[in-house]
Amino acid sequence: MQAFENYLKRHTPLTGEQISVLKQELKEKTYQKGKILLREGESTGLGYFVCSGLLRAYTLDSQGKEHTIQFAPEDWWLGDRNSFYFHEPAAFNIDVLEETQVVIVTKNFMEHATEICPEFGKYHIYLLHNSIRYMQRRINQLLAATAEERYLDFIRLYPKLTLRISQIMIASYLGITPESLSRVRKELARRNSRV
């Protein structure tokens, strides 16, 4: 919980006293690698703040192939907006990629935090807009960028993840095959070795 409190203190004007009140609405939990927190079609209304570890949001196509939408390392939020904000069936699955400690957040927490600290509401809106911006960039990358451009953007966004996740998952996120990812990495390594 301390990691979440520190995050709130860094990014919002919530006071220690306000955070103490809000903590009563939060739950901290540790999940083991492989645990599925949310399945497509379920509706839990829960979101997750990652204190330590790594989560992933993904979807499955009709052939059962995984398509990774987002990773959530430390200090990231992750949730399915259909489920969290609208209590509708989730569009994505969320699973645990390594032992992960999270703070479980509800829509009620967000509303209560905004009620006692209107500035928190502005930060919440910022997070929503940032998420939309991120998704727009993802769509643009998947439609118009080369595999190399997508991989370089992945490294910029997630600089420490290449050693924590499999090449198959990175390829899934990039929308390419693992073989294509291998070729991209080899070409980048070849060019860098010539510099």
From TrEMBL:
Q: Boundaries of each Cyclic nucleotide-binding domain copy?
A: 14-107
Q: Which SUPFAM superfamilies match?
A: cAMP-binding domain-like
Lineage, top-rank taxon, reads Bacteria
Q: Which Pfam families match?
A: cNMP_binding
Name of this chain's protein: Crp/Fnr family transcriptional regulator
